[in-house]
Design brief:
This protein has 240 residues and is of the alpha/beta class. The chain has an eight-stranded parallel beta barrel, surrounded by five helices. Helix 1 packs parallel to helix 3. It is globular.
């Protein structure tokens, strides 16, 4: 399992929020490109970059995203407010390895199929959920879609992966919830990336045993509860 550090951008800074809510910043760092280099130097194989301002419809961090991609030599997956083809093309043009689509993918199946066909194996669908309901527009609105049913409907699309975030535990350092993750794994053959609540090495061990493709880790890395080098070394061991 790959351990992917999260770099969430707001007003040009790297931040970590509780439950994705503005005004709950737990971490604020001034230079996102320096943060990216720190994680690369610690052994990261990939980075996860989200433009929170775009996701919330209030700002843009494209310059910072470009600086991150230029600073590192590892793949970067980018999302946050990606709701039209022009934005997808823009992110690929500045060097994103994968583009993450959420709200538009949930609401517009025809568009999702089109963009996946245009960029096969390069699009990741974000499923941000709380109590089994998928949230949209920066986690601010309920979509009416249930996780398992929606995930089953994605099989057959040439996706790079599905990113599942448990919003209920995101940024709270409270640990993961395994049951919904197992339900998703049993519902799809698409590579699964898990985010939300990953707090300890034991959490990572539990996910690794499920043969998940990757996990995104945020606040626990920034707070030092998980050391990236140690986590990467642990994940390379054979699962017992």
């Amino acid at each position: 399992m790959i351990v992917i550090p999260a770099i969430d951008l707001m007003a040009g800074k790297c931040v970590q929020l509780v439950g994705g809510k503005p005004g709950t910043e737990q971490v604020v760092l001034d230079n996102p490109a320096d943060v990216a280099l720190k994680w690369q130097d610690a052994g990261a194989e990939r980075l996860h970059v989200i433009d929170l301002d775009r996701a919330l419809g209030d700002g843009d961090n494209t310059d910072e995203i470009s600086e991150i991609i230029e600073a590192v030599n590892i793949p970067v997956q980018v999302g946050g407010g990606v709701r039209d083809e022009a934005r997808v093309e823009n992110l690929f043009s500045i060097g994103a390895e994968n583009v993450i689509v959420g709200t538009r993918a949930i609401k517009d199946r025809e568009w999702l199929e089109y963009i996946v066909d245009k960029y096969p194996k390069r699009i990741i669908v974000a499923i941000d959920a709380k109590n089994d309901e998928i949230l949209v527009k920066g986690w601010q609105e309920c979509s009416g879609e249930r996780v398992t049913g929606f995930v089953k409907g994605l099989d057959g699309l040439k996706l790079a992966g599905i990113l599942y975030t448990n919003v209920g535990v995101e940024g709270r350092l409270s640990g993961i919830e395994i049951i919904p993750i197992k339900k998703i794994l049993s519902s799809t053959s698409t590579p699964l990336i898990v985010s939300g609540g990953i707090t300890t090495l034991d959490n990572l061990k539990s996910l690794n045993k499920l043969n998940i493709y990757a996990c995104v880790v945020g606040l626990s890395l920034y707070k030092g509860k998980i050391k990236l080098r140690e986590a990467i070394k642990l994940m390379k061991r054979k699962v017992r």
